[in-house]
Amino acid sequence: DTVVIDFYGPNCPYCVQIAPLYERLAQEYHEFATFLKINAQRLPSLAEGVQGLPTFLFLCRAEPMGQLPGADAKALIETTHSAIKKCMEAKTTLEEAEKKLPELCPASEKFQHNVDFYGGTIEEGVSRVASKEACCGVCTIIPQCAGYTFKPGQDSSSESGSSQQQQQQQGTCYPKSAVANKVPTDPAMGIVSGTITDAQREEAVQALNAKAGGGQSGGQRSGARRPSLSQDLPSATCSFEKDVDFSSHDLPSGTIRRKDRQACCDYCAAADDCKGFTFMESTSAEDLEGYCFLKSSDVGRRDADPRMRI
Prior knowledge:
Elements: E1 2-8, H1 13-28, E2 33-39, E3 55-60, E4 63-69, H2 73-100, E5 112-113, E6 115-117, E7 127-129, H3 132-140, E8 147-151, H4 163-169, E9 171-176, E10 182-184, E11 192-195, H5 198-213, E12 244-246, E13 250-258, H6 261-270, E14 276-280, E15 290-295, E16 301-303
Parallel strand pairs: 1-2
Antiparallel strand pairs: 1-3, 3-4, 5-11, 6-10, 7-9, 8-9, 8-11, 12-16, 13-15, 14-15
């Protein structure tokens, strides 16, 4: 998933100087990353944005992670190792989230086979997922999602294979902001659609909380004191960061509904086991409460898409 690109020039002395180290890194890390070399003088169109030679570009699943200009051997070793580590950690977090998506699909959901909700696609929510249940889970966590259409990937009888084959087996999930335009589809396509209501979102949250709590009263973690959801709480002082998500570290029974970020802050401050939170605003005119995700740590800080209203 990690790609390192060396932009070099044949007449660049610093490029020649660092080349043996780059080749050694390519050999040592060949199982974890792909190492490429591009002659920037010969192919300038591929080196757009490169200011000097050599320059090393780091990518994680085709997304830029940063550039390293110059022939600093120590910096190249450290940056390469760091980029591979971060990309592997991000992949693990993504895989863990994907495994949980089917659990977010409400038990009451009734799938509509051979139906496509045409139009109204929430573009930023389009995802590659393994099942209709996972697609249902994607819609559940997007406040403005009213329904979804799942289009299966290529079929395969083998459970193993290359990452490319596994990706082809995944289908595409299209979350929808409107479900009025219902179009029948060819049964051979295997398309499945469904709708999600706010009542079903509450159902999914309660089911997850009960599961995480292991049967304890209120689904709370043993030894942790949390206030009642209906309790009036004193106003707490929090430092808010817009468009920032504390990924992972979710507390058991730690997903609640609050009216705004201050209410989420107040609840976190009153809970013994809460060290931080992520608040997602509601985009519905009818449902004004957002989602408050309580966290045991704030170390998983990452930038969030502004359209998610986090």
